[in-house]
Amino acid sequence: MTELIITEKPSSAKKVAEALADGKAVLKKSKQSQYYELTHNKKDIIVTSAVGHLFGLGEQKGRSYTYPVFDIQWEPSYKITKGLNYVKDYIDTISGLAKNADEFTVACDYDVEGEVIGLNVIRYVCKAKDANRMKFSTLTKPDLVEAYEHKATHLDWGQANAGETRHKLDWYYGINLSRALTTSVKAAGSFRVMSAGRVQGPALKILVDREKEIEAFVPQPFWMIG
Fold first, then answer.
1. I want to staple 78 with a disulfide (CB 3.0 to 4.6 A). Which of 84, 116, 151, 197 is the partner?
2. What is the Cα 31 distance to its own chain's centre?
3. Surface-to-core class of residue 213, CB atoms within 10 Å of its CB (0-12 exposed, 13-18 middle, 19+ buried)
4. How far apart are CA 124 and CA 108, in angstroms?
5. Which of 126, 151, 134 is nearest to 50 (CA)?
6. Virtual torsion, Cα 128, 132, 138, 143, nearest 10 deg
7. How many CB atoms lie within 10 A of CB 136?
8. Per-residue pLDDT tens over the stretch 154-210
9. Is the torsion defined by CA of 58, 62, 66, 67 positive or negative?
């Protein structure tokens, strides 16, 4: 029986492998990716990693510049963003290792983004519906061993759903509104890529309102009696 552990980045995979190995973890290269083979309590384990988000949201019907667009899906990030060709090596490596694994464990950072990274690897690369979950806050050997020995038997679905929702809202609000603004500028006879988002927009509104208050301020003389 072989267990495949997936971390969020290569440096984390190294730490996890070294912490769990009964002897010495054996490093294996796979194009631009890598993985470690080891045994822990006589159990065969392979530790590999993602490299941040291996998947991103893209349009189901291919990239366009129209709006609004709501038909979106998760796709390998190298297919939707230029300069990420190396991501394919990580996906291919995990996919190959998953075929010979009987058990999957996510050891990505224990936060919302880490949960989304792990979820996408499990369902789109490992072709599984769920996985074990290691939860740790430091990469020290005691904490990693403790996290492994007491790992949860399911992903943290609360964090996973929250993270996926955030990514979709970023698209629905940010991408669509940015395209609308850019199209408006173009229709006025100019061209400039405009950007808006669920955080960027409200933050800009707060700054504008504050600047208007400052401009409207009328100083009044006053005296202090000491």
1. 84
2. 22
3. exposed
4. 16
5. 126
6. -150
7. 21
8. 999 999 999 999 999 999 998 899 998 888 888 888 888 888 888 888 899 999 999
9. negative
- Backbone φ and ψ for 185, nearest 5 degrees, come out as -65, -40
Q: State the DSSP string of 105-153.
A: EEES-SSHHHHHHHHHIIIIIS--S--EE---SS--HHHHHHHHHT-BS
Query: Which residues are CB-contacts of 144 (< 8 A; sequence separation ≥ 6)?
Result: 15, 16, 19, 20, 134, 136
CA pair distance 60, 70, nearest whole angstrom = 9
Helix (H/G/I), strand (E/B), else coil: 23: coil
**Residue 173 DSSP symbol:** I
Bridge-based pairing state of the strands 55-59 and 72-76: antiparallel
Helices assigned H by DSSP within the chain: 10-20, 77-80, 87-98, 112-120, 141-149, 157-169, 176-187, 200-216
103 is written with which tokens?
């058990």
Q: Which two tokens stand for residue 111?
A: 């936060």
Residue-by-residue DSSP string for 158-171: HHHHHHHHHHHHII
**Which residues have C-beta within 8 Å of that of residue 157, sequence separation ≥ 6?**
none
The Cα–Cα gap between 205 and 78 comes to: 34
